[in-house]
Design brief:
338 residues; 40% helix; alpha/beta; D-Maltodextrin-Binding Protein, domain 2
Length: 338
């Protein structure tokens, strides 16, 4: 594979209106044309897709920049130019599109997407990922783990000493995906607030990335991680006693999305790569090479507990700054207890 990593680690990149934090940046050499992608997906996971695209388009070099979902959104709002933006934070992506930061795009590939996997020909889903619970079997009595939120609440209340300091979840104030999952929990069921209060009484550890939570369950530092991206879990947990739980009361399904920024310098290349992601070959590679589940209506129909987070205006409610602050205040009161 032909690529050179320019930067790995934390870096501040000056933009038109400030700076944003870059986690990784890699250049995949090609010809005279350059496609610039900003993404929340690790370079290692996305590299097979880039290699396959460049095999058919050898004249295109690709600059691939990895940042947090909040920094991806902030970069586009600040006018930093990219040709394609890929993110796990559906609400932030939808807000960008709604606020005029995305170009429209229509093609045979976008037309083939289910209606629930796109929005106004501006925002397109290319992967669907269950949001799961990761649990260490040995941390639960008799090795049985709860399969619903109500059962989990009962188990935590029955044995608080066992779980004190050993539960991990996203910090919604610092993680775009974590904020999305927490607000969707609240929309789905009041049980989620009861669970938040119980977890809050157990001194939980707060994270900004699923991978960190998964690693700590595997090592035994955590007994449980709540609201974790399932696509990251299976490979990392191989050989451990940890299990991946799709909650039977409901399991959110995140849609990983892409859009073409309104200020893209090479919108044509952004559209070309987007169509590749949505093509039959691109979808095969998404699933087989990156570990991200492809867009699959049949899989959703087979799992009635699976609840796709819909690309609709409901996502914009919690994107409102006042609503966001109100929600974070309530969440903090429930989970970050003295």
């Amino acid at each position: 594979m032909r690529h050179a990593v320019v930067t790995i680690g934390l870096m501040l990149w000056a933009g038109l209106a400030g700076a944003f934090e870059i986690e990784e940046e890699a250049v995949f050499p090609g010809g005279a044309d350059t496609l610039s992608i900003v993404s929340t997906t690790d370079t290692e996971a996305f590299a097979p897709l880039i290699a396959a695209f460049q095999a058919d388009n050898p004249s295109v070099a690709i600059r691939y920049t990895v940042a947090s979902s909040q920094d991806v959104a902030g970069a586009l709002e600040d006018g930093i130019a990219f040709d394609l933006a890929v993110s796990s934070a559906m609400d932030l992506q939808l807000k960008l599109a709604n606020d005029g930061f995305a170009l429209g795009h229509a093609s045979d590939e976008t037309a083939n997407l289910p209606a629930w996997a796109k929005w106004r020909d501006q925002l397109f889903a290319f992967a669907q990922e269950p949001v799961v619970i990761i649990a260490s079997s040995s941390a639960f009595k008799e090795g049985t783990v709860p399969r619903t939120r109500a059962a989990l609440i009962d188990r935590l209340r029955d044995d608080p000493e066992r779980f004190a300091g050993k539960i991990g979840t996203y910090d919604p104030a610092r993680s775009g995906a974590g904020y999305l999952f927490a607000t969707q929990d609240a929309r789905q069921s009041d049980t989620s607030w009861r669970l938040a209060e119980v977890v809050g009484g157990l001194n939980p550890q707060l994270f900004t990335a699923s991978g960190d939570m998964i690693d700590r369950v595997r090592s035994g530092e955590l007994a449980l991680a709540y609201n974790v991206l399932g696509s990251y879990a299976s490979a990392r947990l191989a050989g451990s006693d940890a299990v991946v739980i799709e909650a039977e009361d409901f399991t959110h399904v995140l849609l990983r999305t892409a859009l073409i920024p309104a200020n893209a310098e090479r919108a044509d290349l952004g559209a070309q790569f987007l169509d590749f992601l949505l093509s039959a070959e691109g979808q095969r590679l998404v699933e087989e090479e990156t570990g991200l589940p492809r867009i699959n209506e049949a899989a959703l129909a087979a799992g009635p507990h699976l609840r796709p987070i819909r690309l609709d205006p409901g996502l914009l409610v919690f994107a409102d700054p006042l609503m966001r602050q109100r929600f974070l205040n309530e969440w903090t009161a429930a989970v970050v207890q003295p």
